[in-house]
Amino acid sequence: MHTSRNTSPLHRTSHLRHRPGSRRLTASGLAAVLAAGLLAGCAQDGGGSGSGTSADGKTVVSVGVFGVFGYKQAGLYDEYEKLNPGIKIKENSTERNEDYYPALLNHLTANSGLSDIQAVEVGNINEVANLHSDKFVDMAKAEGVDKSAWLPWKWDQAKAENGKVVGLGTDIGPMGVCYRKDLFKKAGLPTDRKDVAELWAGDWAKYVETGEDYMKDAPKGTAFTDAAAGLYNGSVSSYAVKNYDRDGKLIYKKSEAVEKSWDLAMQAVEGKMTGKLKQFDKAWDQAYANGTFASVICPPWMLGYIKEKSGPKGADAWDVAAPPRPANWGGSFLTVPEHAKNKDEAVKLAKWLTAPEQQAKLFEKQASFPSSSKALSLPAVADAEHEYFDDAPIGEIFSDAAKDIPTAVLGPKDQLIQENIGNIGILQVEQQGKSPEEGWNAAVKKIDDAVED
């Protein structure tokens, strides 16, 4: 998978199965995970597109991605080649989006070195759509593309102001809350996933209130949640308008979403509810293994990561509950540059890879959650359970969240703003003991140095 990702090569295993009413099976695979706003995965050199014709006369369609999108691992490339004997697919994968995206912009400027299909992360799609739409095929006009197959908010993320749709949605990251039943029980909180969801239903402030209740009788050496930045991310992502207004103006300094989410994060820090961890660092991984925090805001792609880091000891402890409010963390798009060498074949492949049936297969094998509304109703998704999380009905939980996610107003520097608020501002308060004002000012300075207001 891929998403809004940061940077550390990570992999995950998914153990999904279907609820009664359809076949039950277990699938495992590798996928990339988000970290603080970019991506991570494993890779090879992403340098030359590799498009053209193979030695045996087949048309080579190149696919440029960052991290592990899972198409190769799930066998989708092989399947497409069997369905289309004249096609050979070559994937060019760069490990980190922070390296991949600047290179993509350089290739677009030079009109060379482009793959036939180029993946674009959700944090970059607004910039691509509104500053570079002339360099991409309008996928809304591609033969056989059905707008209604995608969740409306996902479709709109790739739409430019001029109406052009520069990419087809791949995965998404609807958020839930993963929690340890054993720690909740010791703290006197309910453990049934429906009862737990009721604790904070409708408001992220209730999640913090639950944290206050947890800390009153917290098991020794444990915190309610892993990181204040994770709480901030969950809260701010549940708003339609956060860093930019609907006219494209940068408003994060006076945004209701940012202000309320920052205040909740500070409340959690001051209440000593957090583990003072930076997500995806080694200390975060070790905290999973040691069971030192009771909850974490988690999209579907994080479940395999939790399973890996918590290990066998956590198999009977973890569960998943619905979030306070629907929010999204992650997701990407497949685009086709106008200067792609095999543009027509690339459009066909991008359309096929993002079709509901393929999205469902990718979820089964790689845990990449579909952005296709039609895929959500397929048994492979709708009936999915996760055995490590006490057979939690993750298909149902995350599908319900996905359908109600607000259509976010995106801006070109959303990713940079999110990173600096989380990794500079919040961490200075949480780990260094700075005041909330000092942390906020430090984040604003970093953002202002990089973004023109």
From TrEMBL:
* Compositionally biased intervals (Polar residues): 1-11
Question: Which Gene3D superfamilies is this protein grouped with?
Answer: Periplasmic binding protein-like II
Q: Which InterPro entries match?
A: Bact_solute-bd_prot1, SBP
Which SUPFAM superfamilies does the record cross-reference, listed alphabetically? Periplasmic binding protein-like II
Instruction: Provide the residue span(s) of the region labelled Disordered.
Output: 1-22
Bias category Basic residues: which stretches?
12-22
Look up the domain of life of the source. Bacteria
Query: Which stretch is the leader sequence?
Result: none
PANTHER family xref list = ARABINOSE-BINDING PROTEIN-RELATED, SUGAR BINDING SECRETED PROTEIN
Protein name, UniProt field: Sugar-binding protein
What organism does the record attribute this protein to? Streptomyces daqingensis
